[in-house]
UniProtKB/TrEMBL annotation, chains A, B:
This is Gamma-glutamyl phosphate reductase. Keywords: Amino-acid biosynthesis, Cytoplasm, NADP, Oxidoreductase, Proline biosynthesis. The gene is proA. Pathway: Amino-acid biosynthesis; L-proline biosynthesis; L-glutamate 5-semialdehyde from L-glutamate: step 2/2. It comes from Fictibacillus barbaricus. SUPFAM superfamilies: ALDH-like. Its main location: cytoplasm. It is an enzyme of class 1 (oxidoreductase). Residues 9-325 form the Aldehyde dehydrogenase domain. GO terms for molecular function: glutamate-5-semialdehyde dehydrogenase activity. Belongs to the gamma-glutamyl phosphate reductase family.
Length: 423, 423
């Protein structure tokens, strides 16, 4: 496997970013067919070399065991032949997505005959800063390359060996394709300074995408001068209105809280209209018991439900990402909106109601990437919405909001064609 | 005029931003008609109270005289009854623009019946940081309000009295409209700390837009954690190819350099193909002489043209914004592209050629908001392209690129309507 290992050269971060930028110029001009062929080649070579990847992954796993990582973290870190096959299949799916590059978004001709076109072009170089999951290495690379962008990867130190092995395999695969191997750069240095350099390398990196916990995202946002696509933190609320249908409400609460509690579109706070909760408290209690949900509630919640831990400010602010929930009781939809305005992270917010006036008030007034009437917040997801793979879920307002598919990795260019027009 | 002056209250920046944010929630729900009525009212009151504005403007002018401002700066600062009328007419034109808010960009229904809509919504609160021109106070306010956004204005200290007077008039006008006066906040404090507070007020401000010189923009980009819409610096190039038509080339060079040398879409560097310049040097020289253009050129330029000042690195990098030009001579379109890649600011870049292969190479390879074949870079402008008034010209790749009209001041929201869907 020496040929694989030798592909990770000892360059500094700036050199790597410059190589990526140079490669991005070539990549931007490739056809969809050429990019797809390269992705399919990577998929095949990943499967063929999966033994090498798993071997390197074992090093990360045994280091993780020594550091007494939680089973959840170990699970995120762990690769198997099946998981590597999933990576490869993921890349094959990306080849099925429409290439956004070259799309003419609009075109018109000025009175003087100047032809104006708005054309989609790649952003250039994407800086991806992420934590333990090695799958991000493959997924982000696939989406970046398909949309004509080079990528500089800075993965978490816990998955260093796995990520290095995956990138070595990608580099080997790219040797026989039209995509230059330099379009995929992996920063092997684990010191914080290396990531810090990415934050300010505006001349070579066009956008930073942090994927991971709130602390990681905060660090990037606060320190970067390169524009950031902020992803992920979801303190999502389900408001059960006075006019909520009982069956729908219970199904949505259950799904949003228990289907996958650790993901960002899971619910963290239930807000109940007082009158509704009074009528339906036994059913709500049965739901909590069924799943062993730990309830942190306000005073009114404690009056109506058993075993309520008194909620403090932290409960309204934080993501539990587990089978715990904060419960707030309100006496109007306006009060629910005010609570969400104060504590929401502008990710996904839902109202359960049969009253269209209350629904409209909620959907219009709540400022979030996704607002729902009578559905689970779990649908804020690229594949659920039919976008295919996503690079993340944007919780910012600029550039892209909500699940980001390939178009979020592009920008536009005005292409003007004339025959001597002047102003 | 005491009622006008009293509307500027003594609040700190954070209090002002919070008031703007609160007002933005109401403003976001207004109809286009309500917003247009408010803008027309502002226009009328600006005209009616123009004597007060001019009186306050005189204070800035006499302070400027004492500080020995250049005539160009004095001119930017100077208001007249006609200019105030232009402000009012500008607002009236904004009422003619289509309101982007509420537009449904796309909509579809998932197999499970969940209805998904992508709806345009206002960004929320815009922070505008700008230099001497008092017209920005009116223009930016008009565009922000029309697109349902509140605005926090931080103008230059040189125009402080003029800006305060304009905002006082706007506040007075808004009293009789549906738009809350708090939606327009003006930061009267001239200390740098006040602007600095805006840079990091992510909880209350959704985007910062700096308008002014390169130093101002750099300060904002480097210090802001609030997302920035970067505008304006244009180091624009005209490349005259070997296959350029002589008449078109001369007309484009003349227009791009001399029509309005101080604006960002004016040309700063001419790149000539060697063979073309050898043939047409006398005509080029005649053009330079006609306008008294100062030429800073490389060695080859000095060989072919008289009175060439040797160009140094600074000449390739900086905007002259005056009747000076840098001249570089190359022997291929690739060499021109490489020069632009190195020194361009990704604003507007043009090739003059009748050769379609060279044109395509240039248009595809040059990374800029606008790329031109056979037309002047001066068309990179909202009104020239038919967008109506613009909030600035974005030279960044995220969110908006090129001239920014009203849609650049909006984001989207996914609005989901279901009947109990869960995943």
């Amino acid at each position: 496997m020496s040929t694989l290992q030798s592909t990770t050269k000892q360059l500094n971060v700036k050199q790597q970013a410059k190589l990526a930028q140079k490669a991005s110029k070539k990549l931007a001009l490739l056809t969809e067919k050429e990019k797809n062929e390269a992705l399919l080649t990577i998929a095949d070579v990943l499967e063929k070399d999966s033994a090498y990847i798993l071997e390197e992954n074992k090093k990360d796993l045994s280091a993780g065991e020594k550091k007494c990582f939680s089973e959840a973290l170990m699970d995120r870190l762990r690769l198997t032949a099946d998981r590597v096959k999933d990576f490869a299949d993921g890349l094959r799916e990306v080849t099925e997505l429409q290439d956004p590059v070259g799309e003419i978004l609009s075109g018109w001709t000025l009175d003087n005959g100047l032809k104006v076109e708005q054309v989609r072009v790649p952003l250039g170089v994407i800086g991806m800063i992420y934590e333990a999951r090695p799958n991000v290495t493959v997924d982000a690379t696939g989406l970046a390359l398909k949309s004509g962008n080079a990528i500089v990867l800075k993965g978490g130190s816990n998955a260093l060996n796995s990520n290095k092995a995956i990138v070595a395999v990608i580099h080997k695969a790219l040797e026989n394709t039209k995509i230059p191997a330099e379009a995929v750069q992996f920063i092997a240095s684990t010191d914080r300074e290396a990531a810090g350099q990415l934050f300010t390398m505006k001349e070579h990196i066009d956008v930073l995408i942090p994927r991971g916990g709130g602390a990681l995202i905060k660090t990037v946002v606060e320190n970067a001068t390169v524009p950031v696509l902020e992803t992920g933190v979801g303190n999502c609320h389900i408001y059960v209105d006075q006019f909520a249908d009982v069956e729908k409400a219970l199904a949505i609460l259950e799904n949003a809280k228990t289907d996958r509690p650790a993901v960002c579109n899971a619910a963290e706070t239930f807000i109940f209209h007082e009158a509704w909760l009074e009528t339906n408290k036994d059913k709500v209690q049965a739901l909590f018991e069924k799943h062993g949900i730990e309830v942190h509630g306000d005073e009114k919640a404690a009056e109506l439900l058993p075993d309520v831990i008194p909620a403090n400010e932290k409960d309204w602010v934080e993501e539990y990402l587990s089978l715990a929930v904060a419960v707030k009781v309100v006496s109007s939809v306006e009060e629910a909106v005010t609570h969400i305005e104060r504590y929401g992270t502008k990710h996904s917010e839902a109202i359960v109601t049969e009253n269209s006036e209350n629904a409209q008030l909620f959907l219009n007034a709540v400022d979030a990437a996704a607002v729902y009437q009578n559905a689970s917040t779990r649908f804020t997801d690229g594949s659920a919405l039919g976008f295919g793979a996503e690079i993340g879920i944007s919780t910012q307002k600029l550039h892209a909001r909500g699940p980001m598919g390939l178009p979020a990795l592009t920008t536009i260019k005005y292409r003007m064609t004339g025959d001597g027009q002047v102003r």
